[in-house]
Design goal:
The protein has 782 residues and is an alpha+beta fold. It has 23 helices and 27 strands. The strands form five sheets. Strands 19-20-22-23-24-25-26-27 form an eight-stranded mixed β-barrel, surrounded by four helices. Strands 8-7-6-11-10-9 form a six-stranded antiparallel beta sheet. The protein is elongated, with a radius of gyration of 56 Å. It starts with 11 loop residues before the first helix and ends in a 6-residue tail after the last helix. The model has no long low-confidence stretch (mean pLDDT 82).
């Protein structure tokens, strides 16, 4: 028997793919038809469940309405029974007395149009309105009076038609103490008035309310159009005669041929039954409309899905044929696409230029420099790496916008191209930093000439967007191989040299010098770490006491900032405040000092220590912003302090650099809040005391240079004495600082100085040590 050839293992995936592709259209069509059948089944089931729910809800609503009407009718008949019992007590009265009493009984309820009281012989004792019973009602009444009964009320035949048929005569029999018939009360019930109360109840277009007697006679009918009298419909023919409990039934109950759903409720003690009916067409009207819409929509969907299934099957068959033809071409093109993707990846890797200036970026520059250094190892020529940083670029960028800053960078890049040779490599490393590799120099001294040319080219004014801009470069130079044999070392040393240029005054160039690199590296590292010092909790406050020379009592503290660096240890303000000011970190540091000082005062007071006024030093940056009073108030409010707890020291040079009006306004705002103001380092601007006299100051601090030379220079001694005298004439207190020798203190006290601080009395100490000083309250010189 011949065997069927087997396919190789690697051919099975292709064969399986082709088989799936051939049978896929039929599978999709079968799936769509199955989903369509499921949708039809689910829709019919849901419509049937919705119909049953609507009928159950309608039956419950009709049953509730029948129960409400029956209960209200029973309450009205109960009130009639109460009128009968009240009338029994009045049978012995005569004339006007009886009429008056019965009139009061009559007015108790408007639903009864007329009442009449009869004695044992059925003679009328009282009638609310003139009128006589018809013969049929009189005969029925005599029959009831001849035989004893336990019934509480009887329905008498009215013998009339038309509107008066809504007036139902009810007879309430009365009995004497022996249980014998003793007359009764005839009350005419106005069913029209009663059912009129339900006329506005929404019971649908075909809704009916019937009141029928226990015998099955219709008494009245209420429908949407109003009340009717046996003219258009009949009560439910299947209503049980003498039914004792509520119930429901459905069918063709009336002669209009419609199927009705009826609910009835018999009155328990009275011969009446209330029935509420509504045609099923009316009840299911909205459901039928939804059903029709559902069938219409589902029919359209069925047609659309059937067409879509056919179209999908047709399209997939065509696509199968096309895909089979494309498989071979796809295999041939796949290798070509792989090669093109590889070439594209390499092209993207080579696109390593700065998009703004067109210069190579950092990555491209490092590759080019490495390549040149490899050639330099085999050459006797010299190479130099330059780092250029534009001075004042940040202020230009912030004040005129990034667009102008970008134009400036493009202009500088163009000037670098024009100044340097084609063999030199120029790159933009990022921001306002450029790098240049000078190649094939004859001597290292050629770098100086090139650097001078670069500075002269860049410092030339630039007219950009209507603005005349001035900038200059700070250049650092590292020579190969003297300052480094690899790209990383050369870049690091060129950056260090550039930093030295900026420190030395900018618009200049510097060669890398290892002897200067240690200090510059420390400053550079401090500058980089300064922004994180506050977040890392490295800043702290020390406090130096200030004593009153009269009794050496501690009358104040000066808060001084310190930086506890994790590597360099305790760093004093002189080593980092200049860095902070140059990088615009100084306002953040000063706000930190304000908040920390207020927090420390609050902690001392919580410990019960006597805390004098604490002085803080502020720069002109905060005075210019105009936001200083608000920041101070917020800090004081946060820790529950007052303005009198803080003293603000402003350097004399800061005030003299500010315009007179600005200084007066800023200090006036602070003084108006209650802060004490002290002029620090007084003595350098003594010639401008006329301006100082107009400021709202409370004290002045003598400059340390004058205090330090007070022993050796008679001129400084005379200046200090003059400052003290002038300050006292202006009602200002005088404070001497940097007092380190006892004879300095004696001279100051003799000249009339009010307060002093310095190493002679106490060094600046941490908050814990300051707490012990505050407990001593006095601090005599050592």
């Amino acid at each position: 028997m011949p065997t069927r050839p087997q396919l190789p293992l690697q051919a099975w995936p292709g064969q399986l793919h082709r088989s799936l592709r051939r049978h896929l259209p039929y599978g999709i069509v079968a799936l769509m038809l199955g989903m369509l059948a499921l949708a039809w089944w689910y829709g019919l089931q849901r419509l049937d469940a919705e119909r049953q729910l609507i009928l159950r809800n309608a039956q419950a609503q009709q049953q509730n309405l029948a129960a409400i009407v029956a209960e209200n009718l029973a309450q009205i008949i109960d009130r009639g029974r109460l009128m009968a019992l009240a009338s029994a007590e009045l049978q012995d009265r005569k004339g006007l007395e009886l009429n008056s009493a019965m009139s009061l009984v009559r007015t108790a309820d408007k639903v009864y149009l007329r009442i009449a009281l009869y004695d044992r012989q059925l003679r009328p004792l009282f009638a609310s309105t003139p009128g006589r019973l018809n013969a049929e009602s009189s005969a029925a009444l005599r029959t009831l009076s001849d035989k004893p009964t336990d019934a509480e009320v009887f329905l008498l035949p009215d013998g009339k038609h038309g509107e008066q048929s809504w007036q139902i005569p009810l007879y309430f029999p009365l009995a004497d103490e022996a249980g014998r018939s003793n007359g009764g009360l005839l009350a005419i019930l106005d069913l029209g008035y009663f059912l009129g109360l339900y006329q506005h109840i929404e019971i649908g277009r075909s809704g009916l309310i019937h009141i029928v007697s226990r015998d099955g006679d219709e008494l009245i009918e209420a429908r949407r159009e109003g009340l009717a009298l046996k003219t258009q419909s009949r009560p439910p023919s299947a209503l049980p005669t003498g039914a004792e409990s509520a119930g429901s039934l459905s069918g063709r109950l009336f002669d209009d041929g419609l199927v009705y759903l009826a609910s009835y409720q018999p009155l328990k003690r009275y011969p009446f039954t209330v029935a509420v009916s509504r045609s099923q067409d009316d009840i299911l009207g909205e459901h039928q409309a939804n059903r029709s819409r559902f069938f219409a929509i589902l029919g359209l969907c069925t047609a659309a899905i059937a067409f879509a299934a056919w179209w999908i099957a047709f399209s997939l068959r065509q696509q199968t044929q096309l895909l089979a033809a494309l498989e071979q071409a796809d295999g041939e093109n796949r290798q070509l696409i792989v090669r093109l993707e590889e070439e594209k990846r390499r092209a993207f890797e080579l696109a390593a230029h700065d998009p703004l200036t067109g210069l190579p970026n950092r990555r491209m520059f490092h590759e080019l420099v490495s390549s040149h250094l490899n050639h330099a190892k085999r050459s006797r020529r010299h190479y130099a790496l330059m780092y250029l940083d534009l001075d004042r670029f940040k202020s230009i960028n912030d004040s005129l916008g990034h667009h102008v800053g970008d134009l400036l960078l493009q202009a500088v890049a163009e000037r670098l191209r024009q100044t340097l040779r084609e063999s030199d490599v120029i790159a933009r490393l990022g921001g306002d930093e450029f790098a240049v590799l000078l190649t094939r120099l004859d001597t290292p001294n050629d770098c100086s000439a090139v650097a001078e040319k670069l500075i002269q080219s860049i410092v030339e004014p630039l007219l950009l967007e209507g603005h005349t801009l001035h900038t200059s470069p700070s250049i650092g130079i590292a020579l190969y191989p003297r300052d480094g044999a690899d790209i990383a070392t050369l870049c690091r040393h060129a950056d260090a040299a550039m930093y030295e240029s900026k420190q030395a005054g900018r618009s200049r160039f510097s060669y890398y010098d290892p002897s200067l690199n240690q200090g510059g590296d420390r400053s550079r590292r401090l500058e980089h770490a300064l922004p994180d010092a506050i977040a890392n909790g490295e800043l702290t406050l020390h406090f130096q006491p200030r004593v009153r020379l009269e009794d050496y009592r501690i009358v104040g503290l000066e808060a001084l900032i310190r930086w506890t660096h994790p590597e360099f240890g305790l760093i004093y303000p002189g080593d980092f405040l200049t860095l902070a000011e140059r990088n615009e970190y100084l306002p953040r540091l000063e706000y930190w000092v304000i908040a920390s000082c207020c927090r420390q005062i609050a902690d001392w007071r919580a410990d019960g220590l006597p805390v004098p006024r604490v002085a803080i030093n502020l720069s002109g940056h905060l005075l210019r912003t105009g936001d200083l009073p608000r920041q101070l108030s917020a800090a004081l409010s946060q820790y529950g302090l007052h303005a009198g707890d803080i003293e603000i020291e402003i350097a004399e040079r800061t005030l003299l650099d500010l315009p007179a009006e600005a200084a007066t306004s800023a200090l006036g705002a602070l003084a108006g809040q209650g802060f004490r103001l002290t002029l620090d380092n007084a003595g350098h601007g003594i010639s401008n005391l006329n301006h100082v006299r107009t400021l709202p100051l409370h004290a002045i601090k003598i400059a340390p240079a004058l205090v330090g030379n007070i022993r050796n220079s008679t001129d400084d001694g005379a200046i200090v004495a003059s400052i003290i005298t002038l300050a006292h004439n202006m009602k200002l207190r005088v404070i001497a600082q940097h007092v380190e020798m006892l004879d300095q203190l004696v001279h100051l006290k003799t000249a009339g100085c009010d307060e002093a601080q310095g190493y002679l009395l106490s060094r600046p100490v941490a908050a814990e040590d300051a707490s012990r000083l505050l407990l001593e309250t006095t601090l005599a010189p050592l």
